[in-house]
């Protein structure tokens, strides 16, 4: 039984593999043999963010090179996910914000990821992640709507009733996001965030959050309808669809900044001289890079990393924009 945040649930998932086998977790990186016994797990999350209680993965830090590694198998999905939002009421605002941004990132990233029909299954007929479908997109949309309504308040609310309402909303948002990304999978935000985490000691939510606006900005040519839908869920005026789509990354960056998270890679402490290495490390996470739905993944990763370092978004260029209230309309 795992009780705790994503770190505890992932540790428990690792133990489900290592205890019966008497082997170290290192031996389970990559594809796991179908004859390998896996203990069943009951997961009880105390944060609203990772969704690990409903996903096939365990994300661990390799102490030898400080990068994150994923151990992934459908049999690692907990047998029972027992989600009681009350467990999250004691989360300090920082933990609630970091976890909440993680949920929002999961929902958005899986909403815009590669279609299941185009997904590269490699030689695995049943990979943990296999592209988006109408069903995963349904969960993602509802999760994004709930995040637009509750994420900011789950960080700032001091009134107990408002805090409870926001934390319950984010518990649903986190689970729905997991029911989307836990099948559809993720791509560039997490791929680049893992590389950022390798160079800093920032939290998982923070490294994702800093990348999210810049990745979306780079998807405006291939994910037009989706970005417009997300913009509407955030209450952005859609009278001009192109402007609404371009404003979305700016609105998200404002929200992320309001949650106390750095909004550029420079502010995360990354040096300009590290950007090429960062891009290379991000591209090396091939299971995520190959799900980024663009024809020129390497070029876009490089551009996204540069923009995220200097804080450039296309809507910023030469235009003034009023600050927005990002609560849902
Ligand atoms: N397996 C997956 O599918 C998946 C997905 C996303 C992230 N992750 C991983 O999850 C980890 C992050 O998990 P997280 O965001 O839940 O944070 P966490 O589990 O690391 O917890 C963060 C801090 O909050 C404290 N905490 C947790 N619940 C609390 C509560 N109810 N009250 C007070 N304090 C509480 C913890 O003790 C810890 O100090 C990262 O390692 C990340 O890589 C896994």
What structural keywords apply?
globular; Rossmann fold; disordered C terminus; 329 residues; binds nicotinamide-adenine-dinucleotide; Dehydroquinate synthase-like, alpha domain; mainly alpha; 3-stranded parallel beta sheet; two-stranded antiparallel ribbon; 5 strands; 11 helices
Describe the structure.
This protein is mainly α. It has 2 domains: 2-85, Rossmann fold; 89-316, Up-down Bundle (Dehydroquinate synthase-like, alpha domain). It is built from 11 helices and 5 strands. The protein has helices at 6-21, 93-111, 134-156, 160-184, 188-199, 204-217, 224-233, 241-258, 275-283, 286-289, 297-310, and strands at residues 2-4, 42-45, 57-61, 68-72, 80-81. The strands form 2 sheets. Strands 1-2-5 form a 3-stranded parallel beta sheet, covered by helices on one side. β1 (2-4), α1 (6-21) and β2 form a beta-alpha-beta unit. α2 (93-111) runs antiparallel to α3 (134-156), α2 packs parallel to α6 (204-217) and α3 (134-156) runs antiparallel to α4 (160-184). The relative contact order is 0.12. Mean pLDDT is 92; it is low at 320-329. The structure holds nicotinamide-adenine-dinucleotide. Nicotinamide-adenine-dinucleotide binds at residues 4-8, 10, 46-47, 49-50, 52, 55, 57-59, 87-88, 90-91, 95, 98-99, 102, 204-205. Nicotinamide-adenine-dinucleotide binds next to α1, β3, α2 and α6.
């Amino acid at each position: 039984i795992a009780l705790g945040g994503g770190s505890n649930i992932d540790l428990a998932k690792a133990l489900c593999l290592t205890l019966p086998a008497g082997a170290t977790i290192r031996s389970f990186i990559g594809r796991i043999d179908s004859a390998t016994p896996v203990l069943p797990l009951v997961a009880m999350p105390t944060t609203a963010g990772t969704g690990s209680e409903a996903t096939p993965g365990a994300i661990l830090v390799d102490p030898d090179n400080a990068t994150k590694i994923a151990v992934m198998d459908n049999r690692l999905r907990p047998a029972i996910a027992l989600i009681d939002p009350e467990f999250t009421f004691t989360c300090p605002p920082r933990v609630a914000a970091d976890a909440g941004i993680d949920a929002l990132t999961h929902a958005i990233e899986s909403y815009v990821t590669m279609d299941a029909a185009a997904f590269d299954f490699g030689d695995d007929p049943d990979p943990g992640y296999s592209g988006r479908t109408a069903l995963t997109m349904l969960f993602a949309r509802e999760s994004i709507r709930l995040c637009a309504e509750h994420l900011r308040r789950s960080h700032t609310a001091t009134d107990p009733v408002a805090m409870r309402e926001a934390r319950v909303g984010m518990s649903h948002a986190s689970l729905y996001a997991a029911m989307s990304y836990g099948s559809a999978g993720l791509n560039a935000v997490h791929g680049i965030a893992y590389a950022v985490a390798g160079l800093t000691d920032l939290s998982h939510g923070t490294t994702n959050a800093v990348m999210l606006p810049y990745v979306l900005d780079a998807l405006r040519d291939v994910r037009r309808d989706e970005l417009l839908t997300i913009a509407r869920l955030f209450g952005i005026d859609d009278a001009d669809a192109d402007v609404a789509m371009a404003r979305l990354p700016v609105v998200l960056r404002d929200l992320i900044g309001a949650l106390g998270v750095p909004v550029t890679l420079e502010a995360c402490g990354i040096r300009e001289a590290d950007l090429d290495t960062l891009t290379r490390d991000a591209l090396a996470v091939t299971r995520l890079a190959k799900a980024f739905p663009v024809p020129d993944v390497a070029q876009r990763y490089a551009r996204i990393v540069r923009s995220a370092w200097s804080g450039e978004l296309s809507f910023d260029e030469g235009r003034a924009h009023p600050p927005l209230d990002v609560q849902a309309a």
